[in-house]
Amino acid sequence: MKNIRIAGQILLGAALIYAGITHLTTSRLEFQAQVPTWVPLSADFVVLASGVVEICLGIALASLQYRRYVGWITAAFFVAIFPGNISQYINGIDAFGLDTDQARLIRLFFQPPLVLWALWATGIFPRRDQKRQIFRR
Q1: Per-residue pLDDT averaged across 23-45, rounded?
Q2: In this structure, are residues 33 and 95 in contact, taking their beta carbons and an 8 Å threshold?
Q3: Where do the TM regions start and end (predicted)?
Q4: Any residues with CB less than 8 A from the CB of 12 and at least 6 apart, and which?
Q5: Domain ranges in the chain?
Q6: CA dihedral of residues 91, 16, 107, 24 (deg, nearest 10)
Q7: How big, in percent rounded to 5, are the helix, strand and coil portions of the chain?
Q8: Which of 15, 27, 71, 80 fits as disulfide partner to 22, beta carbons 3.0 to 4.6 Å?
């Protein structure tokens, strides 16, 4: 089970690195469209900053050090960016092939599994027979 979790952690790290790179390059404009209008920063800055954060989180996940800390931070990041997905749905913003209300609504249900993936892959949800420690290396 430990090897499966480690593989899941590395896969999530690779996905975040890829997403971060697309924030900085090919999908930059589409990501800008998802930034809620109430955010008091420029949409471009938010997209660039979140791209850099995603790359850093991806590298941290792939390094396998400080697994639980990185897991909590990654889960918190996924929660922090969720308002962008909600904004895309509420405002009917077309991006990433999500061009119907139904598609945008379905997208919302993918964020909680990402949070759980980050927590599970980094060992925050240990097996029942292990002693439960929140911050364990």
Answers
A1: 93
A2: yes
A3: 43-62, 69-90, 110-127
A4: 58, 61, 74, 117, 118, 121
A5: 2-121
A6: 30
A7: 70, 0, 30
A8: 27
Residue 35 makes CB contacts below 8 A (sequence gap 6+) with 43, 46, 47, 84, 87
- pLDDT at position 129 is 44
125 pLDDT band (50/70/90 cuts)? confident
Cβ distance 77 to 57 under 8 Å? Answer: yes
Q: 């800055």: which residue's tokens?
A: 45
Query: What H or E segment, with its residue span, contains residue 76?
Result: helix 67-90
Distance of CA 80 to the CA centre of its chain: 9
39 φψ region: left (φ > 0), alpha (ψ -120 to 50), beta (else)? beta
Instruction: Give percent of the chain above pLDDT 90.
Output: 78
**Alpha carbons 92 and 102: distance in angstroms, whole number:** 10
Instruction: Compute CA 110 distance to the chain's CA centroid, rounded to the nearest angstrom.
Output: 10
The rounded distance, in Å, linking the Cα atoms of 39 and 105 is 21
Lowest mean pLDDT among 55-64, 99-108, 119-128: 119-128
